[in-house]
Write a structure and sequence with these properties.
mainly alpha; 8 helices; 0% strand
Length: 157
């Protein structure tokens, strides 16, 4: 059951879990959530890296609870409308990445590919962890792998 906008606004948990409404998109809600994550990150980018890391950790921990509650509310294990995991995963992907269009675009596309294809340990997390932790873990892993990949590229050039 995909929640309706009226249901969503009655629950602050759903508002956050559904990425302030973008999770209700008929077209690629995960990609829309990642876009929101990118723009939220850009808004926070003036913060010191240590504070950004704290924001990511808090967003991840809160996300486990938020995603669990939202999944129960919509009566699905990992509904596509929940995009908080993509938002925080995108923050992981962008941590310490140069705020230049090329690096932002590469980070975005690599994160989306890893989130969609779920290779290796990312897929294992998706299949084997349940509840809010399961919803969050694969996207956080995709974000970390993206960040490591982008920083590896930066070291090579």
């Amino acid at each position: 059951m995909k929640p309706k906008l009226a249901t969503m606004v009655e629950s602050p948990t759903l508002v956050v879990a559904l990425g302030f409404g973008v999770g209700l998109s008929r077209w690629a809600p995960g990609t829309m959530g990642s876009i929101i994550g990118l723009f939220l990150f850009l808004g926070m980018s003036a913060l010191p890296a240590s504070i950004l890391l704290v924001v990511i950790i808090v967003g991840s921990l809160m996300g486990v609870w938020i995603c669990e509650r939202a999944a129960l509310a919509v009566q699905q294990k990992d509904p596509g409308c929940i995009v908080w995991d993509e938002i925080v995963g995108m923050w992981c992907a962008l941590l310490l990445v140069p705020l230049e269009p090329l690096w932002l675009a590469l980070s975005f596309f690599l994160f989306r590919m890893l989130d969609i294809l779920k290779p290796g340990p990312i897929g294992w997390l998706d299949k084997n962890l349940k509840g809010g932790l399961g919803i969050m873990a694969d996207d956080l892993a995709a974000g970390v792998v993206t960040a490591v990949g982008i920083h590896g590229l930066l070291l090579l050039i």
